[in-house]
Amino acid sequence: MLRAIRRRREHGFHFAGNFLAVSFDRVTTEESLVSMKAECHARDGTIDGTALGVLADLALAAPVRAALPADTRLATVNMQLQLTGAPCHAPVTARSSFHGFIHGAAGRQAVSRVTLHGAGQEIGLGTATFMVLDLPPGTPIPFLTPVDPALDEAPLLDPERDLDPGERALFEHARMALGDSKADDDFLDRLWGYRTRPHKGGASGTLANGPHIGNRVGHVQGGVLLGFAQATSQAALPAGWGLSSVTACYVSPGEGRELKAQAEIVHQGRTTAVTRVAIATDEGRRVLEVLATHSLRAAAA
């Protein structure tokens, strides 16, 4: 946590990416290489949903950033991911490429694609579209640099002396999440703060906003939004169902005090299922629409 806070100061991009030790090993339009050094597998051995969302979002944006000035902001418009279900172990690598801008669009929208590998196996592939926006005044320009936590020998920040009020709130949030965790493998759920509850035909979820999940302008980071949607969709289904694909449409910024998710089971067959998830602000403004497919694992059949 303390190293992530320091990297956030140095690199200028959001806490979630720094906490997951996302490393921008190469950033070019033709082939960017982005890796995630933190351990990021879920209980079933596949990639954690929030880690997947954050890595995919950052990796898909990397080659687009290489084609644009540094003082540019990207807003995710849509993202499609197909997963193979292969086991996931750190480091996870993502290779992405820029595929130009949408012709004839009134707003400048950039297209990119990505493949993800973990432990030598392909775990997923996907595409995304980003809206190119001006960076608000005073927003830090991110430095997309390589990161290797194993070689990080800088002294740790002192929680009592070295943190500003916002950083201290981040640190205390993580300490509370660690204290509330009943096992090592539910710490990340506590850290991100997803609260989901199944009900007949679906599930609901709530997520309190905060700096631990925010991007540079204070909105909930796009990959975290995707992780929240996945957590809610998984809560709608019995154990044994795994995510196999997701199509996400980003409608508006994730802002406000709290976000709410509603998942609906569209179809549940013998081996495949479909869920639809809508995320909105506490005032009812739509933020994200997700359609996901799930596969029943052989062990649960």
Offer a few descriptive terms.
301 residues; alpha+beta; 12-stranded antiparallel β-sheet; 6 helices
Topology summary:
Layout lengths: L1 H10 L3 H5 L2 E5 L5 E5 L12 H18 L5 E12 L8 E10 L7 E10 L2 E14 L30 H16 L6 H6 L2 E5 L2 E7 L13 H15 L4 E10 L7 E11 L3 E10 L4 E11 L5
Antiparallel strand pairs: 1-2, 2-4, 3-6, 3-9, 4-5, 5-6, 7-8, 8-10, 9-12, 10-11, 11-12
Give the class from helix and strand content and strand pairing.
alpha+beta
Largest sheet: 12 strands, antiparallel
Total number of strands? 12
Task: Give the low-confidence spans.
Answer: none
Task: Tell me the series of helices and strands, N- to C-terminal.
Answer: HHEEHEEEEHHEEHEEEE
Concise structural overview:
The protein is an alpha+beta fold and 301 residues long. 23% of the residues lie in helices and 37% in strands. Strand 5 and strand 6 (121-134) form a beta hairpin.
Structural summary, described in words:
This protein is of the alpha+beta class and 301 residues long. The chain contains six helices and twelve strands. The chain has helices at 2-11, 15-19, 49-66, 165-180, 187-192, 222-236, and strands at residues 22-26, 32-36, 72-83, 92-101, 109-118, 121-134, 195-199, 202-208, 241-250, 258-268, 272-281, 286-296. A twelve-stranded antiparallel beta sheet has the order 1-2-4-5-6-3-9-12-11-10-8-7. Helix 3 (49-66) packs antiparallel against helix 6. The mean pLDDT is 90.
